[in-house]
Design brief:
With about 350 residues, the chain is mainly alpha-helical. It has a single domain, classed as Glycosyltransferase. Helix content is about 60%, strand content about 0%. A two-stranded antiparallel ribbon has the order 1-2. A hairpin with a 3-residue loop joins strand 1 and strand 2. Helix 6 packs antiparallel against helix 7. The longest helix is centred in the first third of the chain and has 27 residues. About 50% of the residues are buried.
Length: about 350
């Protein structure tokens, strides 16, 4: 009996170690590098000469530019070096041109401007950390310092953010825009731009206040309702970025997402319509958990991403448009490169 049990354990050990090795190999597979390159080449072709990208119907130029630029920086390109240096440089120039005197990066008449503002803080802060040109560094520092002040002033009385500033939006807040601000602010802080600690702490509290008993995060504290798996995945990434890794709250959120976001673990149907948004953030969380967790996750999700790539390098799912899905998927496939400080372990 004891011999049989030992043989069974040995077999299981080989099985699971082989699975982990396969997953780890997938992350470094040339097919992944080629898929990411095809996606970035597609994005390079889609960039307008003024430096921006846009979603369907010409929407969300600021947000799409920041997301596409981030995907290119994840490859290792900067404004002066790499295959996509020209594209990154044009994207930076466009977003800098969109910086308003009050600090907003975007259009004040856009009823969802905090998305683009948050993504732009994240992208520009990653570029700022690698920028060699002193004049450009000075310009980026000024843009980011004003952007941080705008976000701080836009925070609501509960500690969250809405689609627009608290003043413009009657103090309304919701989870997804809160996450973009937390990540953007943390990325700025990591790059040396001052961010008050209490602003991040209030945002952490807002996320905790939106939690349901099963570990999910609601769309909005004010509107209550049930948990939203995509927002929960984003909230985990935000909590990690804000320095909270091992609390019981974060563990509950991770468990909830494993059951409701990750197809191999639970019910992926709960992220229908927001698959790319959910996995953009959940991938960040799994990568920061360590090599073992990341290998298992990307070994499962990665092939799903590759199977749906179009011949032109894009991904065409969703209603926002191929620039959005292609930037998201390219970033997920390249997180393991380690070029983006905000995602590093």
């Amino acid at each position: 009996m004891r011999t049989t049990a030992l043989l069974l354990l040995a077999a299981l050990s080989v099985l699971f170690s082989g699975t982990a090795a396969h997953a780890k190999d997938f992350d470094k597979d040339p097919k992944v590098k080629l898929a990411a390159k095809k996606a970035l080449d597609y994005l390079a072709r889609e960039q307008r000469r003024q430096g921006y990208w846009e979603a369907n119907q010409g929407q969300y130029r600021v947000a799409m530019t920041a997301l596409a630029g981030t995907a290119m920086v994840a490859e290792g390109s900067t404004t002066t070096r790499g295959r996509y240096a020209k594209n990154v440089r044009l994207a930076v120039d466009y977003l800098v041109s969109m910086s308003k005197p009050n600090g907003l990066i975007g259009y004040e008449q856009d009823y969802r401007y905090t998305y683009g503002h948050g993504f732009s803080m994240l992208f520009l802060s990653q570029v700022y950390g690698e920028e060699d040109d002193l004049q450009r560094r000075k310009e980026l520092k000024d843009v980011l310092e004003r952007a941080v002040k705008f976000s701080v002033n836009a925070q609501t009385s509960r500690g969250g953010w809405g689609y627009v500033s608290a003043k413009d939006g009657n103090d309304f807040d919701e989870g997804s825009t809160c996450i973009t601000q937390v990540q953007g602010l943390r990325a700025c802080r990591n790059a040396g731009i001052p961010v008050r600690k209490d602003v991040i702490e209030r945002a952490q509290k807002y996320i905790r206040d939106c939690m349901t008993p099963d570990g999910g995060i609601r769309y909005s504290y004010a509107r209550q309702g049930g948990a939203r798996p995509p927002i929960t995945a984003a909230a985990i990434a935000a909590m990690f970025n804000s320095g909270e890794y091992d609390s019981e709250i974060v563990k509950k959120m991770l468990k909830y997402c494993e059951n409701n976001v990750w197809p191999a673990k639970g019910n992926a149907g709960n992220v229908s319509g927001h698959w790319h948004y959910a996995h953009y953030y959940f991938a960040q969380a799994k990568y920061r958990q360590g090599e073992k967790e990341w290998a298992e996750y990307i070994g499962d999700i990665g092939p799903m991403i590759l199977r749906k790539q179009s011949s032109d390098g894009s991904w065409r799912e969703g209603y926002i448009g191929p620039v959005y899905t292609s930037a998201i998927n390219a970033t997920i496939l390249q997180i393991g490169n380690g070029y983006l400080p905000i995602y590093q372990r």
